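Hi support team,

I've been running sequence recovery on a batch of backbones for a student project. Most finish fine, but this one hangs at about 90% for roughly twenty minutes before it completes. I'm not sure whether the input is malformed or the queue is just slow. I've pasted the structure tokens below so you can try to reproduce it. Let me know if you need the job ID as well.

Thanks,
M.K.
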């Protein structure tokens, strides 16, 4: 069953059910199918045929979703090109993936070097289920046809891509999305990233509704979650952290939420405790890899016992912890995480050298270190790329950050090193006042000794769309603060 057929199946169960809910009203499944058909006809008229690579850059979320499905229905290959991507990176992606068309709305400037297809916002009235694709003679994709470039986070170096077929794309959705039913109402941080795309389709496959929330302010987001009785919240931890500033200190702020999933970055114990007691008791913390998909998920009960766990390995996945010689280590010992999933790819798109390094002997070797305890629960320690060396002692910056976050009122900080005279010097950026930083470090004299005076206050830390700290960019972004410290 392909992407279009999965959504048709959900729509046929109840065409009057809402597919998208927003302050402007709601779009039913019947209307959404009409929107897909409209998009299919227009793309077909513009010349999109099987095998064409089509970039999608639409600010209108239901239309974005409809165009993605329409491209798949035509046998094309879609790739999200978020409008926040800098122009040079956009041009690089267009060239690298041989993008032939760019579908955009009028509020987004046209791209150079591709054929621009401009869509306007389209509203369908109740009962207007236009266009029967079965009578249009449009090509029907097969399960093994290439359908979607899903981009990795770039944690393996430069961002890579996996080219999914119709079948592998559907399987990726089915194996990642948990607990969504037709009565569910989902709030996502975005629909453009790999994770956002997967949960968007998982919502539509289930016949559930996506809440198109206002994201201008945290207060608007909180209002929309309660107004539309959201059942599923999928956000990076830093979004949840910002919510805590605006909700009551006691009581559950979102009683309708059945599944709260922090994604993309690590979850501190203070934040976990606050989520369980103030946001929703139904917290599920996963571990997933862009290249492979969801590997494990921790239930609320697991998290209460082991706050740092990513839970049990899913039934279709296999995960092992290996040493530098690729030998399996004992339970509780830290090593590199390698994973294997039935039907997974064995390569990146047009990146043979990187593929050989990461995909070996049927395994994908992640960039993460961690361990599996005696109960079979997975724990992530940090990324190999982030490992720092201080006087021969190797540490993950997350270990140092947790010391501060778990024992003070500071909720966000980042540690990094700069080489000076062949020696790595530790620096710290804290989202806190100098007074609060000094108080926190007073409780950790060893850490204060490592830092010396090389720490400073910042308004926020740079993060990607999944909430991960952009560690490789810290030195350049905070060059002014580093320079001022170095002068003293």
């Amino acid at each position: 069953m392909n992407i279009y057929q999965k959504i048709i199946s959900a729509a046929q169960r109840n065409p009057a059910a809402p597919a998208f809910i927003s302050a402007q009203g709601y779009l039913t499944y019947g209307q959404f199918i009409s929107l897909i058909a409209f998009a299919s006809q227009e793309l077909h008229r513009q010349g999109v045929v099987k095998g064409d690579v089509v970039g999608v850059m639409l600010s209108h979320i239901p239309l974005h979703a409809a165009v993605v499905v329409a491209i798949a229905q035509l046998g094309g290959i879609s790739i999200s090109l978020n409008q926040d991507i800098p122009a040079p990176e956009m041009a690089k992606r267009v060239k690298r993936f041989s993008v032939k068309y760019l579908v955009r709305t009028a509020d987004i400037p046209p791209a150079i070097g591709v054929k621009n297809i401009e869509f306007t916002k389209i509203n369908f009235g109740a009962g207007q289920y236009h266009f029967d694709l079965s009578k249009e003679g449009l090509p029907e994709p097969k399960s093994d046809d290439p359908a979607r470039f899903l981009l990795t986070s770039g944690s393996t170096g430069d961002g890579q891509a996996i080219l999914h077929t119709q079948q592998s794309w559907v399987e990726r959705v089915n194996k990642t999305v948990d607990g969504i039913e037709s009565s569910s109402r989902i709030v996502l941080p975005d629909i453009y990233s790999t994770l956002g795309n997967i949960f968007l389709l998982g919502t539509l496959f289930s016949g559930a509704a996506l809440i198109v929330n206002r994201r201008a302010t945290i207060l608007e987001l909180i209002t929309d979650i309660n107004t539309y009785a959201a059942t599923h919240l999928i956000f990076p931890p830093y979004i949840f952290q910002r919510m805590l500033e605006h909700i009551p200190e006691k009581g559950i702020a979102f009683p309708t939420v059945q599944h709260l999933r922090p994604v993309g970055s690590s979850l501190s114990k203070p934040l976990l405790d606050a989520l369980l007691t103030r946001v929703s008791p139904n917290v599920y913390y996963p571990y997933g890899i862009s290249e492979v998909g969801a590997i494990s998920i921790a239930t609320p009960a697991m998290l209460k016992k082991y706050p740092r766990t990513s839970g049990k390995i899913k039934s279709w996945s296999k995960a092992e912890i290996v040493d530098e010689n690729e030998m399996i280590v004992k339970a509780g010992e830290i090593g590199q995480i390698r994973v294997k999933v039935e039907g997974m790819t064995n390569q990146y798109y047009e990146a043979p050298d990187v593929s050989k390094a990461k995909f070996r002997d049927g395994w994908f070797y992640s960039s993460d270190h961690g361990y599996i305890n005696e109960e079979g629960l997975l724990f992530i320690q940090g990324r190999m790329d982030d490992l720092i060396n201080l006087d021969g002692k190797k540490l993950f910056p997350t270990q140092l950050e947790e010391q501060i976050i778990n024992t003070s009122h500071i909720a966000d900080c980042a540690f990094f090193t700069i080489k000076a005279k062949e020696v790595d010097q530790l620096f710290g950026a804290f989202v806190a006042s100098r007074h609060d930083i000094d108080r926190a470090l007073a409780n950790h004299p060893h850490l204060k000794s490592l830092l010396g005076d090389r720490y400073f206050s910042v308004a926020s830390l740079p993060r990607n769309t999944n909430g991960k700290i952009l560690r490789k960019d810290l030195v350049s972004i905070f060059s002014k603060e580093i320079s001022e410290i170095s002068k003293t």
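--
Follow-up from support: It reproduced on our side and the slowdown came from queue contention, not your input. Residues 372 and 378 are 5 Å apart (CA to CA). No action needed from you.
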